[in-house]
Amino acid sequence: MRYPPNTPLGRFQIETLEEGLDRCVASIPLAGLVNPLTGAPTVGPLAMLVDHIGGLANHLRRNPDEWTVTSELTIEFTGTATTVIAGAAGEPVMASARPFGPKGTTSMSICELTCGRVPVATATVRSFHIRAPEHLAKWPPACGDTDAADVPPTLATRLAVDVAEGGGAKVLRQLQDPALNNLIGIVHGGISATALELVASAAVNDGRAQHLLQTASLRVNYLRQFLAGGESRYEATTLRVGRSSGVADAKAVGADGEVALLARLTAYPGTA
């Protein structure tokens, strides 16, 4: 299943290949996408893929009167993830998700990500089960084909973000774009998680021209709804950076000035 380019999933050319109670599978192409703050290849959009497929595995477990919202997302990357993806000649990353543990107030799924059959990451998504919202935006129908010409060419334009000044922080402003909103009219959680990885990765690599630290782990907590526009932004600062590792904290601040998401990223030197 492919999605229209005026939806978050279509904007990233995500394709759902399998959807079932025992397993869900989807793919995302990353060829040519770079971090707008560093200009380097990035694994950030894999957060978009994980949020989708891991969330879908949880969503399929809901009761008829329930809906699901992501509350936590974690990704652990292999030391070669960036190198493997960058050298895969445009081959998409595949993610397979399955339920993990019993359903309760929350559900949890576990995901495995590969590129050309090479493992690149493992991930988990935890979702809250809530009463189904009374008003949901009409979901655009799936389409048979998504023309690449309809998709913005750069990662910054796909995310609708601008690089901004932030003193000692790395900052991306989140502009308004209806194509990035989910069914209840707020910025899609995968969009926000991707942007948080970008600012946090840029923070740990500030001042490095070569031998960039590569993202090893990303943990995102969703605190409240994130609205774009106004002063909404993603910003990250470092906790510690040394020769062989770096740790940064990032947050998404909504148009209302409230912190909507928090993230922590750990990075190490990449391996070939």
UniProtKB/TrEMBL annotation:
| A GO molecular-function annotation | acyl-CoA hydrolase activity
Please report the stretch or stretches of sequence annotated as the Thioesterase domain. Answer: 185-259
Q: Which Pfam family is an annotated match for this chain, by its short name?
A: 4HBT
What keyword terms does UniProt attach to this protein?
Hydrolase
Q: Which CDD domains does this chain map to?
A: PaaI_thioesterase
The UniProt entry, under InterPro entries, shows: HotDog_dom_sf, PAAI_dom, Thioestr_dom
Q: Does the keyword Disulfide bond apply?
A: no
Which named protein is this? Phenylacetic acid degradation protein
Q: What's the source species for this entry?
A: Mycobacterium dioxanotrophicus
